[in-house]
């Protein structure tokens, strides 16, 4: 009976966890959940939907002194877990890309995943390796697919490692400390946890929205000019001899 009761309790807890909700993940797994989620989001293509931005910010918020609620996390543990999870995940994604190449991305059936791969490749082409790898950290989905794509495109290991560590630390430590700072400076901020997290999610999606608008403007501006024409301009046709 005791074993059955424990199993039933574990099953209930597992079912209660919402992997898309940062608060639910942190309540269930604490700092360990931060490491696992960030590893999956940055290292495994199946993790592109996970809430990395909101998870980091919420974890930092729950580390602040005076923040109430059922969960309180230790800031050093969260910072270490976040850094380890994202750095190991990104490096894993890179080596998966080196081994599997583009076939891994081609097998993905998700339209968002394919669009993210296209944006990631555009980032690498437009900004160069260093800037693209750092910027991708702040763009959902792109930070998932850029790592294997960098491996598939044979970005040098030293270059990739240097800039993924730089970008990973800026992203994880920056968002976590931002949440901690807000929780430390605003009394009873936990009462407004859902609106604050929603704002973080909207801000994290802003780069995607801006990228879509930019692409549409470029297509509208360059569409007519890019269309080939079969008719020759009379002014440019040389006179017949």
> Which blocks of ≥5 consecutive residues have pLDDT under 50?
1-15, 223-241
Amino-to-carboxy terminus distance: 104 Å
Task: Kindly state the percentage of residues in helix.
Answer: over 70%
Overall outline: globular
Order of helices and strands: HHHHHHHHHH
Characterize the largest beta sheet: strand count, sense, and whether it forms a barrel.
none
Rounded radius of gyration (Å): 23 Å
Structural class: mainly alpha
Q: What's the total number of strands?
A: 0
Number of helices: 10
Beta-sheet strand percentage? under 5%
Average pLDDT, all residues: 76
Summarize this entry quickly:
This protein is mainly α and 241 residues long. Helices cover 74% and strands 0% of the residues.
Protein described:
By secondary structure, the chain is mainly alpha-helical. It is 74% helix and 0% strand. The chain is globular, with a radius of gyration of 23 Å. Residues 1-15 and 223-241 have low confidence and may be disordered.
Defining traits:
single chain; 241 residues; mainly alpha; 74% helix; globular; disordered N terminus
Give the helix/strand layout:
Elements: H1 2-16, H2 22-43, H3 52-63, H4 75-100, H5 103-107, H6 111-127, H7 129-136, H8 142-152, H9 157-185, H10 193-226
């Amino acid at each position: 009976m005791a074993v059955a009761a424990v199993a039933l309790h574990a099953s209930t807890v597992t079912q209660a966890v919402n992997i898309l909700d940062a608060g639910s993940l942190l309540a269930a797994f604490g700092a360990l959940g931060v490491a696992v989620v960030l590893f999956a989001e940055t290292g495994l293509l199946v993790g592109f939907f996970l809430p990395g931005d909101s998870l980091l910010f919420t974890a930092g918020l729950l580390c602040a002194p005076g923040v109430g609620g059922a969960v309180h996390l230790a800031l050093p543990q969260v910072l270490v877990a976040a850094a380890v999870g994202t750095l190991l995940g990104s490096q894993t994604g890179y080596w998966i890309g080196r081994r599997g190449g583009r076939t891994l991305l081609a097998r993905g059936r998700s339209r968002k995943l394919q669009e993210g791969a296209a944006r990631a490749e555009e980032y690498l082409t437009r900004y160069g390796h260093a800037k693209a790898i750092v910027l991708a950290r702040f763009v959902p989905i792109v930070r998932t697919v850029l790592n294997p794509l960098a491996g598939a495109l044979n970005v040098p290991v030293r270059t990739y490692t240097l800039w993924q560590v730089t970008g990973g630390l800026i992203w994880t430590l920056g968002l976590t400390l931002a949440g901690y700072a807000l929780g430390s400076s605003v009394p009873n901020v936990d009462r407004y946890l859902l609106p604050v997290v929603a704002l973080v999610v909207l801000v994290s999606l802003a780069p995607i929205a801006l990228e879509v608008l930019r692409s549409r403007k470029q297509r509208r501006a360059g569409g007519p000019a890019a269309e080939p024409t079969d008719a020759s301009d009379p002014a440019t046709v040389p006179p017949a001899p």
